[in-house]
Amino acid sequence: MRHRIVGELMTSAVVHVRPDTGFKEIARLLAEHDITSVPVLDDQDRPIGLVSEADLLLNEAGQEDPAGLLLVPSLSPAEQAKSRAATAEHLMTSPAVCARPEWTVVEAARLMQRQQLKRLPVVDEAGRLVGIVSRSDLLRVFLRHDRAIREEIRQDVLSRTLGISPDSIDVQVADGQVTLTGTVAHRSLPPVVERLCRGVDGVITVTSRLDHRTDTTVAPHPAR
């Protein structure tokens, strides 16, 4: 049982810029490649920041309304500096928050959620850019076929991880929704099976209808 890793899902051919790349060239690259941000690389191909559409739009947001109908924009000092910037070095958001190719989907998703990011540059051991992974890339695990999910649950979760015969539990998967039916040896097993199934890539929900044959709870000694 294993989660898919970033290296399997990332885009390897990454559009990037250098610190001295100009505003218009960055805007052209975003439009030409239909992307929303580009990593900024140093001379060792290590990401030092990202320039996004939001960074570029500060140029417009920072301008006063010629007609005088809009309020004067309220920008932070950092945003004001970006609104007047002309190169990637001064437009970028830094430092760049990066992922590693061997990270699981779970690790990358948690970092994106924690940092409120839409994409992560992916770097090797030396910190050099090897790819980029986005939210949509991570969501591709939910496009897995139901047959593949069912087989992983039967072979990896039940047989190899828990030592349970796959034929003792009926596993049904429909659009990523798993239903488990059958009987296991001990009372403690159903929640374990359910938890492990929830961790399989592509699983959306798990409905457990598992029963057990024996109760492993220790009974209290009778009073004397």
Q: Could you walk me through the main structural features you see in this protein, from its secondary elements to its overall organization?
A:
The chain has 224 residues and is α+β, with helices and mostly antiparallel strands. It has two domains: 6-141, CBS-domain (Roll), CATH 3.10.580.10; 144-214, 2-Layer Sandwich (Histidine-containing Protein, Chain: A), CATH 3.30.1340. It has helices at 6-9, 23-33, 53-61, 77-83, 88-91, 105-115, 135-138, 146-161, 189-198; strands spanning 37-41, 47-52, 119-123, 129-134, 169-174, 177-186, 205-214. It has a three-stranded mixed sheet with strand order 5-6-7, covered by helices on one side. A two-stranded antiparallel sheet has the order 1-2. The longest helix is centred in the C-terminal third of the chain and has 16 residues, at 146-161. The two termini are 49 Å apart. 24% of the residues are buried.
- Compute the number of structural domains: 2
CATH architecture of the largest domain: Roll
Task: Please provide the count of β strands.
Answer: 7
Distance between the termini: 49 Å
Helix count from the secondary structure assignment: 9
Tell me, briefly, the overall form.
elongated
The Cα radius of gyration reads: 25 Å
Alpha-beta content class: alpha+beta
Order of helices and strands: HHEEHHHHEEHHEEHE
Low-confidence stretches: none
Going by CATH, the homologous superfamily of the largest domain would be CBS-domain
The proportion of residues in beta strands is: 15-25%
Give the oligomer, counting copies of the same chain as homo and different chains as hetero.
Answer: single chain
Name of the top-level CATH class of the largest domain: Alpha Beta
Which fold name fills CATH's third level, the topology of the largest domain? CBS-domain
Going across the major beta sheet, what is the strand order?
Answer: 5-6-7
